[in-house]
């Protein structure tokens, strides 16, 4: 059986938990500026969802000593797919264990990537049911578009930093059935890979950590669906003091429109204007970008992704922390 037969076993990125040393600032960013709804508050954590997120939460914000990703969870396409992916992870000797799950989700299989990122797979979810005052007349929409900030529709994707890209990429391909649609090489070194198990250009990306650290987060992305909203968001962030790292512009890699900012806790967040190209071909061949093509790959419109932050800063942060993040 070829790996191709395992495609579509991972449906999408369901949720991410971020830690923040500045919970008030982080919650102001996600609730007031990005219009996310709060669905639960417990202990040091607050659960949030965008107005088209289908489950109880897509983002959990937890107070902690430093900005970082606690974990990210992918939902499989069926209970059987979950069992098959777990069996494959176990064959590959990737450490993992079941947990009982938490608010809005059932039992969850937790494992570490070869670089140490905490990931999880799950099938069981509690679909979000809007109370009458939040029910949308648009039937495919899980709740009304809120009248605050510039609201994001839903979580989109995850970008991980890794000391070595290739082992993480290969584990996602081999055990999760993901396909790498695009990659970047610098000579013999693979410096980036964008992969999914669906028609999207990526659910997960992995990029080389220029600081040589392991298991860090580059960014979590939230989806607008309309490129103009990234320009509107840039104006909002300027006015309200959120540091903009790069954008709005369009990547050549994935062909998606982007805007990168730092939320007040220090995690990098991407606002994703549109999904970029869709991978409809079942036998799509991986595109490999080389360094002589990288300017087009990073930004078609010529935006400079700043070397002093974009390729070195991740969370948890490593000193020296750039001034733009410290503000
Ligand atoms: Fe991204």
TrEMBL record:
Listed GO MF terms: dioxygenase activity
The species this protein was found in: Streptomyces kasugaensis
InterPro entries named in the record: Glyas_Bleomycin-R_OHBP_Dase, Glyas_Fos-R_dOase_dom, GlyoxalaseI/FosfomycinResist, VOC_core
Assigned keywords, A-Z: Dioxygenase, Oxidoreductase
Protein name according to UniProt: Catechol 2,3-dioxygenase
Domain VOC: 12-124, 154-274
Source superkingdom: Bacteria
């Amino acid at each position: 059986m070829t790996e191709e037969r395992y495609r579509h076993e991972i449906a999408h990125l369901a949720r991410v938990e971020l830690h923040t040393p500045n919970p008030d600032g982080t919650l102001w960013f996600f609730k007031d500026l990005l219009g996310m709804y709060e669905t639960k508050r417990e202990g040091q954590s607050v659960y949030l969802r965008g107005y088209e997120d289908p489950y109880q939460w897509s983002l959990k914000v937890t107070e902690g000593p430093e900005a970082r990703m606690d974990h990210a969870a992918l939902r499989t396409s069926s209970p059987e797919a979950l069992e098959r992916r777990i069996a494959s992870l176990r064959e590959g000797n990737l450490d993992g264990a079941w947990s009982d799950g938490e608010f809005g989700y059932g039992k969850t299989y937790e494992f570490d990537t070869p670089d140490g990122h905490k990931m999880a797979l799950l099938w069981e979810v509690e679909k979000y049911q809007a109370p009458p005052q939040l029910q949308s007349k648009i039937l495919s929409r899980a709740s009304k578009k809120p009248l605050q900030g510039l609201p994001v529709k839903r979580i989109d994707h995850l970008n991980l930093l890794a000391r070595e890209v290739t082992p993480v990429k290969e584990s996602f391909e081999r055990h999760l059935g993901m396909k790498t649609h695009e990659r970047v090489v610098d000579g013999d070194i693979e410096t980036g890979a964008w992969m999914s198990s669906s028609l999207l250009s990526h659910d997960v990306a992995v990029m080389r950590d220029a600081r040589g650290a392991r298991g860090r987060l580059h960014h979590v992305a939230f989806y607008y669906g309309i490129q103009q909203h990234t320009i509107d968001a840039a104006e909002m962030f300027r006015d309200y003091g959120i540091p903009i790292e790069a954008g709005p512009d369009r990547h050549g890699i994935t062909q998606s429109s982007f805007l990168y900012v730092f939320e007040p806790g220090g995690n990098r967040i991407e606002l994703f204007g549109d999904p970029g190209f869709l991978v409809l071909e079942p036998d799509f061949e991986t595109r490999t970008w080389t360094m002589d093509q990288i300017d087009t790959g990073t930004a078609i419109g010529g935006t400079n992704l700043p070397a002093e932050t974009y390729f070195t800063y991740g969370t948890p942060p490593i000193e020296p922390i750039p001034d733009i993040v410290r503000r």
